[in-house]
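Consider today's protein:

***
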Amino acid sequence: MQDEDVEARDWQSVWPAPAKINLFLHIVGRRADGYHLLQTLFRFLDYGDSLRFSPREDAQIILARPLPGVLPEHDLCARAARLLQRVSGCGRGAHIALEKRIPLGGGLGGGSSDAATTLLALNHLWQLHLPRHQLREMALQLGADVPAFILGCDAFAEGVGERLTPVDLSTACYLLVFPPVQVPTARIFAHPELRRDTPRMPFADWHPGEGHNDLEPVVCALYPDVANSLALLRQHAPNSRMSGSGGTLFAECPSQPAARALAEKLPLPTVIANAHGASLVKAVRCR
C-alpha cells in the first residue's frame, strides 16, 4: 500500500491486508542468536484479510473478533498497535475488527500482513506521521515477514527478511490450494532435517521460475496431507510449490479460466488470486 493510497483513507475505510506467496525460499545460514538467514521472493496477491478501525480516547486496544485459540496479548494486530503506542507515546486507542480470510498456519503471511496494515493504518489515523522506514524497523520486532508488507511491493528479501529489494514482475494469476492442515512455523524452522546451507544467489542472477523452497521437504515429511496434495497438484501443474512454511500450495496459471479448470480437478479448497506486478499492493481491493 503506497503512501498516497494510505493518505486517502479515514476511520470509515476498509484496510486491505493482502496475502503473499514465496516464489522461492532458500535458507542460506543461521545467526548465532538462532535466527535463520534466508533469501526469498515475496509476491503480493489481491486475496487477503481486511481490517476496520474505530477510535478510542482511553488508549485501550480492543479486538472486536479475537482469533480462536490466539490469546489477545499474542494477537499480532494488538501487538502492532501497542508497539506503535509505545514508540510514539500516543495516548489514543482503537477498536480493531479483523475479517479473516487467510488461513492460519498457511504460509501466506496472514498475521504479518495484519500487523503491517495495523501499523500503517494507525500511524495515519492517529496522525503520528512516522516515516515508512521507521515503521519497517519497528515491524521487524513483530516478525521477519512484516517489513515486506510495510514496503508493499513484490520484493527480493535477504537477511532474516529485513533487507528488501523491490522487484518489478509482470501480472500473474495463481491458484492457491489449501490442504487441511495448520503448520506451525516454529516447528518447521526448528526441525533438525531442515536444510540450512543453500548457496546464496546474487539478486541479479535470479530469474522467474528459479529456486525452490527449503522448507517444503520437511513439511511434506511431517504432514502427509501436504505431500499428497502437492503430488496431485503437480500432476497437472508440474512447477507448483509450497508457500513459506506451508501448507498452502500454489500454481501459476496462464489465465483465470485455466485456474478454474485446474481447481475443478482437485478435491481441495482453492482460491484464484492475482499478483498485480508494478501496480503494487495498492491494487488490492477488499471484497
Summary: The longest strand covers residues 36-56.
